[in-house]
Design brief:
By secondary structure, the protein is α/β, with parallel strands linked by helices. The chain contains 16 helices and seven strands. It has two domains: 274 residues, Metal-dependent hydrolases (TIM Barrel, Alpha-Beta Barrel); 95 residues, no CATH class. Helix content is 45%, strand content 9%. A seven-stranded mixed beta sheet has the order 1-2-3-4-5-6-7. α1 packs antiparallel against α2, α13 packs across α15 and α15 runs parallel beside α16.
Length: 443
Amino acid sequence: MTSLTEQLELRLDNFDYAERKCALDGLLNKVHAGEISLPQSGTNVNLHFHTFFSYNSNGYSPAKIAWLARKNGLAAAGVVDFDVLDALDEFLYAAKLLNLKACAGLETRVFVPEFSDKVINSPGEPGIAYHVGIGFPSADMKGRQKEFLLHLRRTAQQRNRGLIDRINKHLKPVEIDYEKDVLVLTPSGNPTERHICLAYARRAREIFNTQDALMNFWNKSGIRVEPSDLPEGKNLLNTIRAKTIKRGGAGYVTPDKNSFPLMAETNRFFLKAGAIPTAAWLDGTSEGEKEIEKLLETAISSGAAAINIIPDRNYTQGVKDEKLANLYSIVELAEKMNLPVLVGTEMNSPGQKFVDSFECRELSPLVPVFLKGAHIVYAHSVLQKQCGLGYTSTWAKENFKDAARKNKFFEKLGHLLEPQREDVCADFNDETVPHQILDKFEK
């Protein structure tokens, strides 16, 4: 029998925001009544959760992620959705109520002309890079920033429609309709490639209503599966994506410099919107990432000020290999270049963890660096939202002689600051000096 707490947690994933808010209020009432005990914050962080506003393999909403992050004792948490900021308001609101240090961002793909002939972190696609903006103070954009954000959403939807047109011809009679089969899988009309794969898996199950018929269809389509993968298991969904959407697949079209915005253009948008432009690192094995210092210098020259790493795919417990060596090398380089290291596991593919295993031998030595990055971006998020004095602000440039001193200040503030006291920062302004801010929270 499902408990009331479990029922409330399930309701946190409802597509209706009023329902989610009601469920969160119910859980908070249980916390305040002493019926649910939340742990003290530890040292684990995940600043890269995808929510159901782009794709979360468990269907988690922003409020659900905030709740589970607090329930699991995370020191800080952040959401990063593809091409939209739809999760921002809900996530930051829930996090503040839960006294969870939080930030919100956006991930997209960009074109890097300086590396146009080299694969960077988008496999098989020279010049194309996944790129992140983190610590947005608001989703409410004006002028050019609003238009840029809308453009990201529109072009993503155009790519999706083109994909489906091409894949429908390949998988016929398993054909899907964008509005009826894909948009319904999202709360705000922002489906991703993974939603498309799920829609194809479900449509195939409707047409082929026995396991043998379904197996035969997928195998004839060049998508080899095991019975245990049916009807919509992790391996099937990943194979559909690999065989139809990614390079060499029936729906794939080679991107060019006009397919995605320039990295420099995207960084300008991030900076104007109050976020920290953040380079994304995959695993150090691509031709572009083998020139990582040059790649980071290129990103920094147009405003990038941090680096995003997903630890979970860069080590295997008990194994010392190239992946692990590359992970340590990129962290060492980031420290040398005074780039905050922002980490987290995406949860946008079935089977991914809620948070990395920071206690394991491979990751535990890096935890202080990961925690420092989390505190920096949290402090930025609060100061930028409350008074416009964030990490990339004019105020920060005028008050810190170098990045090392700036990092030290934002790290300390992120450590001292508690979410339920964030509003105090509204009293600060351009005339405030850094020690006055720290003094406010050290008392």
